[in-house]
Amino acid sequence: MVNTLHTKQDIFNILSFIPDPEIPVVSIKEMGMLRDVVLTDKGCEVIITPTYTGCPAMGMIEDDIKRVLKENGVSSVNVKLVYAPAWTTDWMTTEAKEKMRKYGIAPPTSSACNKLTSFSKNNLIKCPRCNSTHTELISMFGSTACKALYKCDSCKEPFEYFKCH
Amino acid sequence: MKKQEAIYNYALRLGDNSLVLGHRLAELCSKGPILEEDLALTNMALDHIGRAQAFLNYAAQVEAKNKTADDLAYKRGERSFYNNLIMELPDKDFASTIARQLIVSTFEYFLYTELMKSKDETIAAISAKAVKEVRYHLAHSSDWTCRLGEGTDLSHEKMQRAFNDVWMFTDELFEMNEVDEVLIKEGIAIDLNSIKPLWFNHVKEVIEEATLKLPETGYMQTGGRKGIHTEYLGHILSEMQYLQRAYPTAQW
Ligand SMILES: [Zn+2]
User: Fold this and answer.
1) Cα A144 from Cα A138, distance rounded (Å)
2) Does residue B131 contact residue B113 with C-beta atoms inside 8 Å?
3) pLDDT (average), residues A110-125
4) What number is the ipTM of this complex?
5) Tell me, what DSSP letter sits at residue A19?
6) Domains, chain A
7) In this structure, what are the phi and psi dihedrals at residue B189, rounded to the nearest 5 degrees?
8) Residue B4 contacts by C-beta under 8 Å, 6 or more apart in sequence?
9) How many beta-carbon pairs below 8 A join chains A and B?
10) Contact status, residue B16 vs residue B58, Cβ threshold 8 Å
11) Which of B50, B138, B143 is closest, CB to CB, to A120?
């Protein structure tokens, strides 16, 4: 079926409301996971990229895209997963990082930290609650592969840090 | 050997290494020494399984026999798996897990850094993603090697024993055959001899920083490239493949 009623921009707008299943305050568009929309005479192809290769949310995101587009009258949707260019936390918008911080997750620092160094000794992470830099790494891996566990020595609260990637 | 067949074999090999190690790490779910480590090991398992899916998908696509990544993971027998033997070794204690992780993640770090430049677009793309993940795995195992090496007498002794035990499985990581020969010429695969000194230097540096001794090099195990495995792989497969073999079209 040809989607003559929807432009590429319309589809982008519809999809921009889909939340990241693991951090619902930000959308897949703000995260930089929504890469492109291609309209062909066969329908619509939505191109997405995973944050991590094993990201378990990809299946859910694909279902959400198809469902939301169907509700908006767009059929014949194909979701394509691409690996290149590799996703980086630098694609997250400033707004997304601020929303993430308010949600209680310390947002990623710049990907310039992509060096072969020991993780714990080379990162100064701010507490998302009190902004203190007196924080300590508890574990390099948190509730998901993309986050690390920290604790704040000022307000004594534990928090998660979205690792730069 | 034709280029297409070589790419199929190469993608299988990379996929099998990720799949088998991913399975081993996943077995540790709920068995980590502390809760944070339980999460770390299972998250690393997920990274490996995600990578395995990407490589096996590509292998299936190159083979063009209408198979999926799942067919390749769940319907091949032991002799058709080409992972390195080190990936299938059982976890005896936390030290053995950390020793294997240090050796493998150092290898993977240098391997995928080089493969990012592969002339095969898919292999280059998966490698670029892998290297970002492996960086954290490597920092994790390097930190733990030092913590345990410099910890108590007991943790030091266990860490040393773990490296001594696993050392005979390290040479195999750098073995090459006809597949490599064909693909190196095409600029698709890398010459593993070129990363061996980088691997050795990093592992040596961490082991020595951890006040441990580099194990002596003696007899080295071999076999994975030919599909000849330790007795452990069969047990892994019997568990991993059980569901698909008992209920062949079962879906998640
Ligand atoms: Zn705080």
Assistant:
1) 14
2) yes
3) 59
4) 0.84
5) B
6) 8-87 (3.30.300.130), 90-162 (no CATH)
7) -100, 170
8) B62
9) 86
10) no
11) B143
- Please tell me the predicted confidence (pLDDT) of residue A4: 60
For B124, list phi and psi in degrees, rounded to 5.
-65, -40
Does residue A1 carry a pLDDT above 50?
A: no
Number of domains making up chain B: 1
Instruction: Look at residue A11 and tell me whether its pLDDT is greater than 90.
Output: yes
Test A50 with B50 for CB contact under 8 angstroms: yes
Nearest to A81 by CA among B61, B84, B14: B61
Q: Which residues of chain B have pLDDT under 50?
A: none
For residues A75-80, give the mean pLDDT. 91
Q: What six digits make up the tokens of A43?
A: 């329908």
Instruction: Report the CATH number that the domain containing residue B163 is assigned in CATH.
Output: 1.20.1260.10
CA-CA distance, B95 to A122, in Å (whole number)?
Answer: 25
Percent of chain A whose predicted confidence (pLDDT) is above 70: 89
Contact call for residues B224 and B17 (beta carbons, < 8 A): no
Taking CB atoms and an 8 Å cutoff, what residues of chain A touch B125?
Answer: 82-84, 86
What is the structure's pLDDT at A111? 63
pLDDT value at residue A115 = 54
User: Which positions in chain B touch A143 (Cβ < 8 Å)?
Assistant: 39
Residue A3 has pLDDT above 70, yes or no: no
Q: How many CB atoms lie within 10 A of CB A98?
A: 13
Residues with Cβ–ion distance below 5 A, ligand 1:
A 127, 129-130, 132, 152, 154-155
The answer to whether position B251 is within a domain reads: no
Q: What is the pLDDT of residue A145?
A: 83
Question: What's the pLDDT at B252?
Answer: 72
Residues of B in contact with A165 (CB under 8 A): 132
Residues of A in contact with B61 (CB under 8 A): none
Pairing of strands A77-81, A43-48: parallel
- Best to test chain A binding among B120, B123, B135, B142 (most A CBs inside 10 Å): B135
